[in-house]
Amino acid sequence: MTNDIEKEAWDEFSGYETVMLATSEGDQPRVRPVTLIRYRDSFWVATGAESAKVAQIRADPKVELCLPLQSDAGNGYVRVAGSGEVVDDKKTKEELARYIRFFADYWEGADDPTYALIRISPREVEYLQPGDMLPKRFSVREWL
Fold this sequence. Notes:
3 helices; globular; 19% helix
């Protein structure tokens, strides 16, 4: 795997992307669309503290996310496997609250008890470039 392909896969993620996030509830996968936020070379999801995904990640941190891709060449995707962590650090939650453009639409402030912040730490990536038939895979050596 070349660094060019890895960079190309990561560059598909801008500041805000709608992705499908998969968690586990017991032996059942659960998938839903979320806004994935790329901030300071990390992936974040801001969500309601009472959402099922928060409870599921606390019980089992394994997650996957998938970003569908479309171009004139065809369809593709970037699929990322890793772990999720519910972040309770006040400073981090405040920093992200200031950055997230839709934050005020849902929460009063960083100390709002209904605000939860999830950090996604990638472990492996599968990247199917639009128009290709076979995906490329690589392990995440260093976070972005």
